[in-house]
Design a protein that fits this description.
heterodimer, A: about 500 residues, mainly alpha, extended, B: about 260 residues, Immunoglobulin-like, four-stranded antiparallel sheet, 5 helices, 8 strands, nucleus (chain A), SWR1-complex protein 4 (chain A), transcription regulation (chain A), transcription (chain A), Swc4/Dmap1 (chain A)
């Protein structure tokens, strides 16, 4: 479209040049008399003239966002460059930033709270064999997965990218996620839980991961993205066609309805064409917009980052308030009767004293559990008030205590194993460091010391032990190098292994 | 009896709070002299009662008459008592005797016929001597014990009926038990499962309260918290140890190569 000279003039706000003759000249007297209304562009106005439809005149001129009004009335804000420490960092790095001088200098750095550390789950060998065993995964690989996941803070694409387990099978991102989250779920489910049940179910729901669903979703997205332009066009055409058909049908129905109502005074009884009015009106405007809205809708439905079928189990609806009061007064507890329960005399649970149903700990661990509880002033065999709630409490307490006792036992076992290994190494190294000369004497002292070590510490197994192990190790690391150098003396080597066997037997 | 009445109401479990136990007082010299058994040092009362205490009552518990569902209570005393099996068919369900020693009493509670339930049995250690804190003499001299007042030994419990017959359920719901008081105005009944209540149990007639349940619940909760903390600590330690062990095993394997 070529702009006329008059256009350019008015755009540049130049005075009209009367010397020029042109089609715009003719319009000039008309334009001069009527002012262009707000909200209509100049070009449009020049086309339609003063006979603009009333609706256009009401269109407000698009306005820019209102500028924020800083410091009205000359009130100045003082800003300062201050150093601050981010409490979320542990390296104590000091940076500087500009803050309003009115701010409290001792205030916590306001962004530190967004550094939410991921709860890092660890599991013991025992827990692994009991709950986490999986045919597809070895413990080593699971360990590796957890270390990578921790290193990259659960950024799954990065984890998947860096994931490289030697001699392991190829893993997809979903495999990794599935394994990680299933392990977390199992750990949460099987470990003593400090909070209440709802928080536990909430946490479990956050670890929900449905691998199949996620894969289907990605496959679907991929097929959606990889359509050819022809396919897209065809789909679009089909879609518009369907819409048109629906529209027609609706129109027919409406007409028929009207006809019947006016003629016979009754409803046609035809089923409604279920249709969203906004979408169908879009058909009239144009296919493109329809397609867009459909696409948008589709992606919204399909794009939850972690699809989950987990629904937090709805808490059982309490009885009507009247019933609750009545039941509480009469000490009635209602349970869902099992539907298949056969009403036989044998199946009936006879009357009992509540205290007879006191939860009992595992028989094998009972003495240790009772002792642990006795230390806390709890009698596991009798309660002052053996009520239902208290028994439930006691049961979870026993459960937790069982975990504790078992963990302690495992620590003892690990302690013992460590001490055996340590002894073996010490014996070996002792003989190697000492060399051939007075090897016998040195070994003897070493051995008896290790023997005492093992006996004394497997029973106690507290912090002191860990320290001694650490120091022992570091000391040995140096000794080992030395030992390697003198490895060639074969006679020494044989005596040391023999001695090692002897020591093991003794302990 | 209508047939519809003899239907079990499924999915309903209804209980009645009771207490059982005994109260014992030391006999004074005059009482002992007038007794036919001069060696008897105590008078005691064994009882099965409702858990809540009646206001201004002289005994522990017993606010409700339990005979609406209990037909008979049998106390099986030590064989040295004449007619040691005492059947009590009328409320109050209690036995008073004199004696000189503590022993285990068998208590058998028989329900009314409508319940269709068998009798239940429990045991109670007849307590004559005052509760003693650790380190105190188990059995103080009589004159000391006399000054300490009556000895109370009571166990709270709940009799639970599952799927009761409709007519029995009707009988039970017609007699809702008196609720335990919400706050404590009298001493706490002492219980061995809570030795720390000894101090609070002194100074008169004890009473069961709802507070006792709540306090016990808190005690259990507290213990659970402690144990979970402890567990977390040990779990961390275990994982450290396992890593250590793994390192050692690797070291040894390296050296064997």
């Amino acid at each position: 479209m070529a702009a006329s000279a008059a256009d350019i003039r008015s755009a540049l706000s130049l005075p009209e040049n009367n010397a020029h003759a042109g089609p715009s000249q003719l319009k000039k007297p008309v334009q001069a008399t009527t002012r262009k209304p707000e909200g209509i562009s100049r070009e449009l106005y020049s086309l339609i003239g003063p006979s603009a439809p009333s609706i256009a005149a009401q269109l407000a001129k698009p306005r820019l966002k209102q500028k924020p009004n800083f410091g009205v009335g000359g009130v100045k804000t003082k800003w300062e460059l201050r150093t601050f420490k981010n409490s979320a960092r542990n390296d104590g790095l000091q940076l500087q930033h500009w803050v309003q001088a009115s701010e409290d200098p001792s205030a916590e750095y306001s962004f530190s709270k967004y550094n939410v550390p991921n709860n890092n789950y660890t599991y013991s060998q025992d827990e692994y064999t009991r709950y986490l065993d999986d045919q597809e995964w070895t413990k080593e690989e699971t360990d590796y997965l957890f270390s990578v996941a921790q290193d990259y803070d659960l950024r799954w694409y990065i984890i998947h990218d860096r994931y490289e387990f030697p001699n392991g099978p190829q893993r997809t991102l979903e495999d990794l996620k599935d394994r990680y989250y299933s392990v977390c779920r199992k750990l949460v489910r099987n470990r003593p839980w400090p909070g209440d049940e709802t928080s536990k179910t909430l946490l479990l729901a956050s670890f929900q991961f449905d691998k199949d669903r996620e894969m289907t979703r990605k496959r679907y997205l991929e097929s959606l993205e990889s359509r050819t332009p022809e396919q897209i066009a065809e789909e679009e055409a089909l879609y518009i066609e369907v819409r048109r058909l629906e529209q027609n049908e609706r129109k027919f129905k409406r007409d028929r309805e009207n006809l019947l109502r006016t003629l016979a005074g009754m409803d046609s009884g035809l089923p409604d064409v279920m249709e969203d009015d906004i979408v169908s009106s879009g058909v009239l405007i144009g296919g493109e917009s329809v397609y867009k809205s459909k696409k948008k809708k589709g992606t919204v439905e399909d794009s939850p980052a972690t699809p989950s079928t987990a629904t937090i189990p709805s808490i059982k609806k309490p009885n009507a308030p009247k019933n609750v009061v009545f039941d509480a007064q009469n000490c009635i507890i209602r349970t869902e009767a099992p539907p298949t329960a056969i009403a036989t005399k044998a199946a009936h649970q006879p009357a009992f004293l509540r205290s007879f149903k006191i939860p009992a700990p595992k028989a094998a661990l009972a003495p240790k559990i009772n002792q642990a509880l006795a230390e806390l002033g709890i009698s596991a065999t009798r309660l002052v008030m053996p009520t239902r709630d208290n028994f439930a409490q006691l049961e979870s307490l026993l459960d937790v205590t069982t975990h504790l006792v078992e963990t302690k036992r495992l620590v003892d076992k690990a302690d013992y194993d460590i001490s055996v290994l340590k002894k073996r190494m010490e014996i070996r190294e002792g003989s190697q460091v000492d060399g051939g000369g007075d090897g016998e004497d040195g070994m003897d002292i070493d051995g008896s010391q290790a023997g005492v070590d093992a006996e004394g510490e497997t029973e106690e197994g507290d912090d002191g032990r860990a320290v001694s192990v650490m120091s022992g190790r570091s000391g040995r690391a140096g000794g080992r190098k030395h030992g390697r150098r003198s490895m060639s003396i074969s006679s020494v080597d044989t005596t040391s292994t023999r001695a090692g066997i002897k020591r093991q037997k003794r302990s | 009896m209508a047939n519809a009445e003899r239907v079990r109401v499924r999915g309903v479990s209804i209980y009645r709070p009771i207490i059982y136990g005994n109260t014992a007082v030391v006999l004074n010299q005059k009482e002992r002299d007038s007794s036919s058994h001069p060696d008897h040092t105590h008078r005691w009362t064994l009882a099965v009662r409702s858990a809540a205490s009646a206001p201004d009552s002289e005994v522990v518990g017993g606010a409700d008459d339990l005979s609406y569902f209990i037909k008979r209570v049998t106390f099986k005393l030590h064989e040295t008592y004449p007619n040691p099996s005492r059947n009590i068919d009328q409320p109050p369900f209690e036995v008073s005797e004199t004696g000189w020693g503590e022993f285990e009493v068998q208590i058998r509670i028989t329900f009314i016929a409508e319940s269709g339930e068998k009798a239940i049995t429990t045991y109670h250690h007849l307590k004559l001597h005052p509760w003693a804190a650790a380190g105190e003499p188990e059995i103080p001299p009589l004159d000391v014990a006399m000054k300490m007042g009556p000895v109370h030994s009571w166990q709270y419990d709940e009799i639970v009926f599952n799927d009761p017959y409709q007519n029995f359920l009707n009988i039970l719901t017609a007699h809702p038990p008196t609720q335990l008081p919400k706050s404590r105005t009298k001493p706490v009944p002492f219980h061995l499962a809570h030795p720390k209540s000894l101090e609070a149990s002194r100074g008169g007639l004890p009473e069961f309260t709802n507070l006792m349940e709540k306090e016990e619940s808190e005690r259990l909760e507290e213990a659970k918290k402690t144990i979970i903390e402890e567990h977390a600590k040990w779990h961390k330690k275990l994982i450290e140890k396992e890593k250590e062990l793994e390192r050692l095993q690797r070291d040894i394997a390296d050296r064997d190569e």
